[in-house]
Amino acid sequence: VLSLRGITEFETFDHPVAIMIVISSTDPDPVSTIMQLYNPNMPLFATDKPYIDTHILRYFIVLHDPNRTSIEYSTEVFEKLKKTVGIHCYLLKINSKPRKDAQNLQRDLLLDDGEEEGVMAEESVRRVWEHILPESDRIESEIQKNAENNQLIPTTESAHRRSSSITSNMSSLPSGLMHASSIQSLPIDTETTAPYEGDEPKAEQQEPVRPTVQYGRYLTEEDVHGIKSMVRDFTVQSMIPFMERSIQHWNEQVAAARRGLAGRLMGASRRFFGTNTRSPSPQSVQTISVQGPNVPVGVNTLTIYPFAAPEAQMRKLGDYAFMLRDYRFAYTIYDTVRRDFATEKAYKHHAATQEMMGICLLLMHHVPPQNKKDVDSHFELAVQQYLGRCRSPFHATRATIVYYELLKACRMWNDIPTALVRMTGEDSDLRSGLFLEQAAHCFLRVSKPRVRKYGFHLMMAGHRYGKAAQRILAYRDYKMASSVLENGAWSVARSHIQFALGRQAYHLGRLDEAVEHFSSVLADTKQTPQQQVAHIREFLFIYKQYTNQVGIDPLKASLPQLGLPVIDDRDILITLPNVQSTRHHEEWDTMELELLESGIEKGLISSSKRAMAVKQQDDHRVVCAVGEASTVHVELYNPLQVAISLSNIVLGCAHRTSIETNDQGGGDDINEDMPEGTPIGSDGLDFEAFQLQKVEEMTLEPLEKRTISLTLIPHLQGSIRVTGLHYTLNELIHTFRPFHKKGKRLNKTLEEMMSVVHAPDCSLDILVTSPMPLLDIAFHNVPETLLSGEVVQTVLEINNKGNKGLTALRLKNSHPSFICIGHPEEMDKDIYARKEIVTDKAQISNQLFDASVISVPLPAADGSGGRQVVMPGETTLVPLWIRGDRIGKHTFRLLFSYQSEEDNATIAHRTLRYTLQVQVLPSLKINAFTRPSTTTVNEYILGMEIENLQTVANFELTQLMATSPMWTISPLSINMDSPDDVNEKTIIPPRQTTFAYYKIRKSEVIDDSGPEAWTSNALSSMLSHGDTKSVSRPPDINLYQTELSFVSELQKKKRKKNTLIFVISSSYIEKWIHSIRYHSLENICLEFTHALASGQSGGPISQHCKGSLQPIIHPLQFG
Fold first, then answer.
1. I need a surface site. Which of 219, 599, 703, 819 has the fewest CB within 10 A?
2. What is the secondary structure of 518-561 as a DSSP string?
3. Which range, of 212-221, 713-722, 1101-1110, averages the lowest pLDDT?
4. What is the DSSP string of 976-1029?
5. Beta strands in 559-675 (DSSP E)
6. In the predicted model, what is the mean pLDDT of residues 395-402?
């Protein structure tokens, strides 16, 4: 840009300062020849324009050729010329004949007469030309070639050309002559970037022919030094003194007058009172008609200042001072003449002056100037006037580049982007892309790099390069921007970059990269439905071309990293067909560990299998027997607003014979191609080690989430790892989505705390064992709501769906006070036997145990020697009672543990998780108190206040039972012989309270072998002998159970027609005491029935009291 300047009317940097007149020393009349060349009345070719000053320096050179004349003759001619023209002359010696050295003599023998192409220049001379010509000529050759092939340089009338410059004349030489590559001493890189048509070069593209033209091959090293001396003498003794004299003259004659008071008054009067036009004169602004390639469209006139005008002389004065590096003086002159240009509305002159003022301010300070706003304002005004009023984008571009280079030299990186972005208009996409790219790089060089701005400007540069058909440059900028915005939160910008990269890669013929970039854009959720459809359609078109080019089957070969549909690895789950609960893993793990310890303590599980069982529990591995079906649950999510279709969905699995965990899957043979197995039925594929389920086709609607369940049936023992999912998108693109599931985050060591470290996950690794039993359970008649204290009998159905017998079934529950399990033989037994006032005796064990672990009784199998086994395919029913112990919503976590009838060395036991949801509602509020009797010794009065908390239901006291090792109970305030009195004091209406009193009497026979006696004997033995191992087992506890029934036989017969009233037997109470862990043995249980009031609508209990009324048990404790 800086080399294509040319002679302009608004600045004088390209105006001639001096002219060299060269004659030969062999001229017969050198003085006459000089006088003919030195004709002041005949303008030169470079000074034929009215705005070019003809008063320039004449410098005369006499060429001396030692092969033609002697040095004495040439010196004599030079002395005569010096006396005629003055000191501005020089005698230059140049050789014009081939040198007679050994190398050239040998080459001349091989050539015919008249051939001189074999003469080589000296090494030192060739180095001179190599440093001068190659770079400029190479750039010009590439520009010319790109203009012919790619049409990069516009050829419109508004394009800038330098028709009057020497460089433009050189560009008109024949194309076979390459100036830059004409030197043969060293190889010069002449490779140019041809239009990209694909990955392979064109067949018809040939190597460039190396030219044989040489420059200066007759020059000697002495001639080169002579030329350097001539240039130095011309510059130091002639040109610079001439410019200094011109500066002094113009300063005294023109600038001083403008700076004086009279000059200022004249300028102000002309500015405010003068007219806009002047009569044409040698010293006034003129308007001339112009035409040519450099004239903007629609402009046919040009505003100029004749070289004799004061404004033109002031401008030239400032330019001369600038060239001589007096930047402060030049700035003063530019500032003075700027006002005149603004007054005359010579906008191009004014813009050029503003540009030079900004340059002077930057060059006056070798460090960044203090007032950077003045510098930027000068360049901003210059660029605006160049673009707006002057319609000269070339000069605006030149000013911006100069400003950019000066700011870069001052390391003012913060100010460069503003200057460059100012020139990013719509008139030139190529220029705008270049400036945006350079602005982006400046954001990385500031003290605190602005990475996001760097990526944003690179993205805009790539966009402008793409509009200018510079696809390689656009691809490069988008690629660099993607490295910055790839992991950020700007999803829209990231998708735009990937989409642009895909398009540019496609146009460049890089189909593999285009497919990769387009695949990352498919899951963009911020686009409109129309744009998403266009993305999918374009991606399918490109992928089809890619598969045809590579020669692969798109339905078998896998396309990695396809973003549709979205699969969250954390939600992938493998379950057995009997699994019902999959949440709260930590609580389940704790229960499993406690159940394992209990089984080892009771001898049900060998202690040698403890470590193996704990490891399997920590790994969360699914244990599956050969032939059992496992189900893999995968949640698919369509993030788009358009529907997508999936077909041929099948799991990717790898089998290995080892049962050890493979955490990273490194030993698995992961095959990304579509697996080919033996079809089984309509949706199955059979392989050697397993059988997989195949989903033929499914459609995901916009924004739909759907969980698919795929069955896996192992055939061989060992381990099977689920590696991923195979599927085909829109019936064209097969892909394999690998599963990478992480374990829980580790936070034990310091290194784990300071970084994110996850434990290995083995939940996708299935342990396949020999045939095992498979427990499946079902609960029947479980109500959704219970009243507080209500007891409901349910049925537990136990099924063995495995291939071996099931034994050692145990239950670990989270609410032991709510659940009680009976024997299968008690399923049809009437356990609610009705009694009157009866006192029975019962015995219970006096040993501590975990009430949450219950051994579930099973029926004895035939031929098993009395062993409780559920054979394969058999079903058994077990009664189970649920009591509302506490008010609120409760989730019962039931963990079942069972073993095979045959020992399995691979696992310790199998477990099954099950949950029940029950809500307990308030029913009664009972307060009890005791006081000694005033009439009898060892007798107490028990008072009870019973409040009905329901709003619609009546409660009736049907039975009272007391359990104690020494106390019995009898009614006191209730007349058992009077039905009216019984009904009055046992029926409690809604929101009412009743009072009842009972007599508690101490039993006549007291068991001395109770817990207190055993504790006393054990303490005595330990204190006297110190032996604790010889202490015997504590004896059982003998209890008195007193049952009071408040329903007569007549009432029983009447109620049997429409309701059932139950009395809990002593055997049930004994089991319940074990399950609820009473620490005090003085308990009283009250049994009530509840019914809806007549004529009232059903309330919270209407769902489970219709048809039959259930007993409600409330235990009371007293001392």
1. 703
2. HHTTTT-SSS-HHHHHHHHHHHHHHHHHHHHHHT--TTTS--SS
3. 1101-1110
4. TT-HHHHHHHHEE-TT-EEEEEEEEEE-SS--SSSHHHHHHHHHHHHHHH---T
5. 566-567, 573-575, 622-625, 630-637, 644-656
6. 86
Give the Cα separation of 1052 and 333 in Å (integer). 127
Per DSSP, the three-state class of 787 is: strand
Task: Report residue 34 as tokens.
Answer: 């000089």
> What distance lies between CA 703 and its chain's CA centroid?
20
Contact 455, 484 (CB under 8 A): yes
- Beta strand 785-787 pairing with 910-921: parallel
Whose tokens are 């002047």? That residue is 278
pLDDT band at 701 (very low <50, low <70, confident <90, very high): very high
Is the CB of residue 286 less than 8 Å from the CB of residue 9?
Answer: no
Encoding tokens for residue 650? 């099948």
d(CA 949, CA 990): 7
Joined tokens for residue 831: 């356990």
Terminal CA-CA length for the chain: 108
The single residue listed with the structure tokens 């300070």 is 365
Q: Report the alpha-carbon angle 135-140-144, nearest 5.
A: 150
Two structure tokens written together for 1103? 């769902």
In angstroms, the CA 719 to CA 655 distance is 6
- Spatial separation of the C-alpha atoms in residues 802 and 774, rounded to whole Å: 4
Locate 117 and state its tokens.
Answer: 């192409």
Question: Where would I find the beta strands (DSSP E) of 422-532?
Answer: none
User: E strands, 731-829, where?
Assistant: 733-738, 765-769, 775-780, 785-787, 791-800, 806-813, 819-821
The secondary structure of residue 861, as a DSSP letter, is: P
**pLDDT of amino acid 1:** 60
Give the full edge-to-edge strand order of the sheet including 18-24.
18-24, 57-64, 89-93
What count of residues does the chain have?
1119
Nearest to 392 by CA among 350, 421, 444, 451: 350
Least Cα distance to 477 among 456, 495, 494 occurs for 456
> Tokens 């049936």, residue?
713
Secondary structure (3-state) at 66: coil
pLDDT of 168 reads 32
State the chain's maximal CA–CA distance in angstroms: 170
CA distances from 868 to 604, 662, 798, 828, 858 (A): 13, 38, 13, 20, 5
Q: What backbone phi and psi angles, to 5 degrees, belong to 707?
A: -100, 125
DSSP character at residue 189: -
Average pLDDT, the chain: 75
Of 97-111, 332-346, 582-596, 1071-1085, which gets the smallest average pLDDT?
1071-1085
Residue 870 or residue 99, greater confidence: 870
Q: Which of 168, 113, 112, 163 is nearest to 140 (CA)?
A: 168
| Tokens (6 digits) for 261 | 């008071």
